[in-house]
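Morning, I've got a small favour to ask if you have a moment. It would help a lot if you went through both lines with me. Thanks so much in advance, here it is.

***
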Amino acid sequence: MPDAPPVEEGYRTRRQRALERQARRRARAVVFLTVLGGAALAIWQLPKRMPALPRDSADVAIALPVARRDTIHNGENAIVALMRAGLTRDVAQAVLTASATKATSTREVPIALFADSAPAPFREVEFQVADDRSIRVLRISDSSWVATERRERWRIDTVAVRAAFAGSLVESLRNAGRGFLTVRGRLEAAYELAEAFEYKLDVSRDLRRGDSIVTVVERRRTAFGAEEIGPLLAGAIFHERNWMHAIRFTTLGGTAEYYDVDGRPMRTSFLAAPVEYRRMSSAFGLRVHPLLGILRRHAGIDFSAPMGTPVRAVGDGAVIRAGYSGGFGNLVEIRHRDGMVTRYGHLRAFAPSLTQGRVVTLGQVIGFVGSTGLSTGPHLHFETLVNGVSREPTRTLREASGMPLSGPALNEYAASRDAIATRLGIARATAVIAPRVGDAPPPAAPVPVTPAPTGTGSPK
């Protein structure tokens, strides 16, 4: 059979391509109609009308629990306080009966009333009867209430407060401790610190601007917001270019005392000063004599005080002199158990029955401030002599301590001391612990003072 002419062959090819394009169009149309039908069916099954969203939150009424708080004041009738908080008299009486609370309070008792919503009746009343205990009274019917007791555990932690001295110890900790302790807690921390250093420093008189304070106390708190300040765990005071430290330690005998970094007790056998109301009018060391007008070493310190102010023995001891002694005027000398001698001059009079050889005790009145001898006015001349040599009295009394720790007790104390030092960020260097107080630069090293080897002499 002869081949088809070229014209006919081209026609068949174009025809075949047209049929293929038509088949593809039909397939796409089927797919499109299937998808469209499924979408239409899905839309048909949706709700006919969607609910409108509220335009403002006020359109939605939400029932929120409410709480009302009040306080039953000391001496106030509890029913009156409950009625003031929102209960009727009958309900208040039922709540009070169920709680077994006294009708008239003898202390401040915070109360809280709870309801499911503002218009709903109160379903619970809570009386905080102690820092760690409350009584919860629950409604079980319209006229019936039942009480349960709730106790809170005390949570214990440690708080460290560092402060620059600002006029007084209380004011310093009041400012620096804000945000860490309550007002009452800061006040108690100040008292604890003052008590720890009472034998070494008179914090109400001796501290001045430029000094620094570190106090570390144990704190106990409850979920009720109650706070108790425990004992001072450690304290440090930077004064006269030196750090003094007090660290609490309980001995094997169960006695808690404060010790310095070397294990010497902070509690000494001596008072800080022999007169209570005084002003230091002349310090220890070289000075121009007020009467003689010459440069002369002053072997003690002078306390200016009103005529007749009682003078106390700074420690236990025996009177080795009680009489008139030249420039000292009326003079008392007392030898103490460690061999140190204290001297009290210019007395107006001696205490009754005070004679040589009499034993006196710490704080006992031995005489009265006067101006006898070489004196320009009423004051007390006070000296401390160690091995017959006059020493600066304030430092001598401060450094005179009781029996230091030794043996196993010292080892246990060292471990306790180093543990508290680490927790407080206190770096230990040889025998001195140097706290870091704020951003202040480290204190300068103390200037060594070598007293002149002079024994007895004229106070003026």
